[in-house]
Write a structure and sequence with these properties.
mainly alpha, two-stranded antiparallel ribbon, 6 helices
Length: 151
């Protein structure tokens, strides 16, 4: 897939998921993202490994965002990562072997891009209304109170 096409389709998928979630149309945004993912996998030179990468990203992204919710850092209105954010992780995975392929052997640079780009993406998603960045201290206090109430 052409590098520019990959970048543009990722942006379309990202905005579809985030704006869809922000405006009560998470299903539509996710459907757009998943259509991009399916088309990407069908056009990939090695479709099955690419699909496996996308599914692995979905699992890891779901776990990561569920951890952020459990820690009280984000509030998606659910105790787990919502389906639209899993679709977002899947559309992100379509960039790994195309537009981000140049980072494959540049581990430190890849980590730097993730350390900077990840928080920027979460911040942008929050500002567009898709999520609520909860107070980490408040989240810790809430967990401490729940723990004490159980015992």
């Amino acid at each position: 897939m052409n590098l520019l096409v990959n970048v543009v389709l990722f942006q379309i998928g990202w905005f579809a998921c985030v704006l869809g979630a922000a405006h009560g149309r998470a299903g539509l945004g996710s459907a757009i993202a998943l259509t991009i993912v399916v088309l990407h996998c069908l056009r990939a030179p090695h479709s099955l490994p690419e699909a496996a990468l996308v599914l692995a990203a979905a699992a890891m992204g779901s776990l990561w965002d569920s951890i952020l919710v459990a820690l009280g850092w984000f509030d998606y209105g659910s105790p787990f990562a919502p389906y639209w954010i899993v679709a977002l992780w899947m559309v992100f995975a379509t960039t790994l072997n195309v537009s981000l392929r140049w980072l494959k052997s540049r581990y430190l640079l890849g980590a730097l891009f993730g350390a900077v780009g990840g928080p920027i993406a979460y911040y942008a998603g929050e500002k567009l209304g898709a999520a609520h960045a909860a107070n980490a201290a408040r989240g810790a206090e809430t967990r401490r109170i729940r723990c004490c109430q159980k015992g």
